[in-house]
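Suppose you are handed a protein chain with no further information: no name, no annotation, nothing but its sequence. What can you learn? This example shows the usual starting point.
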Amino acid sequence: MIFFCTGLPSPLVEWCDALIARLAQCTIGPAEVVSANTLEELALVLIKSRASHLVIASRLPSDGLRRAIAENGNPLIVALDDPRAALQNLVTRHGLDPVAATRAVAGSCASVLDYSVAGNALVLRAEQDGRDPVGTAKAIAQHFGFDLGQVEIAHSVDALAEIGISPMPGDSTTWWDCFEGSNREIVDGALEGYIDYFAGRGLSKIVWARDLFFVGDDPYQPATRLIDITGRIRNLLFGPYIILPPGSWVATVVLGFSKEAADITYGIEFIAGPRCVSLCRTSIRPDGNRIFQATVVFTIEGSTDQPISLRISNERAAFDGHLVLGSVTLTLHATGHAEIPHELQTALGN
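A reasonable first move is to predict its three-dimensional structure. Written in structure tokens, the prediction is:
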């Protein structure tokens, strides 16, 4: 059998993964926890795994996987949490650096929005369900049809606690308060829009700081420094490769130029997925302006390959000059999420 569990990469969803596997073992036999976010990844898992039962753990679930789960009527667990708790989990427990963790959490926030309103989903919220692990475990067992008594369920919860698997994080408030400086600005810009959405205030603006982008000539270097444009026509900057919700987006790109770089033409393009499908493209010429702001509009459909990136290139060879990215601000103008689902309104407990 296959059991699906998705949510932000927080302690709650990891506890759900492990609990489902343990409950399955108590009723139908050993179950393996594997990761799959797309139908293609799910197919590969089914081919490679020798396990009779699988727990599919998804942190960046695709729209195609969601439709397949809904069409087949598979029961689904959706674990919602404060994005900051997910960030803390990735940094402190999994050892990700804050920038990589921010990319992962922002993409996960965008991915799970539609899953939370699926008719076959049991939606769990950390502030409520994470504080009652036995009661939550009982609800999960009933959702998947595991015929287990209260004592067996409580024993499974205790067994996970003994090995350090808990649905609640440590002192996230203290950790977050100590998370300051430039890293805090990067996280705030990328995640505050989703925090607002989960609290029922609508999806506010998303700001991608330059730390999330890469230098075109050196994709392992963050675009936090001046980018030399000297040389042939080429990609100068790329990133951040983050999933966005479907809808019509307005992006404001702020760039700075040296005197020599302010007199040539540049291409600004938003692209989607690993095949770099163009969503929109425009050319800009600063005409001597050292600070230039470009505004572009693009649309993301449910079928659009993800993640999304900005690509900036020079459109003719340059003899000298530098540019620097200020920030990218994204505002959603049209979306299918007109009404905020109650599950998301209460995800943060407010």
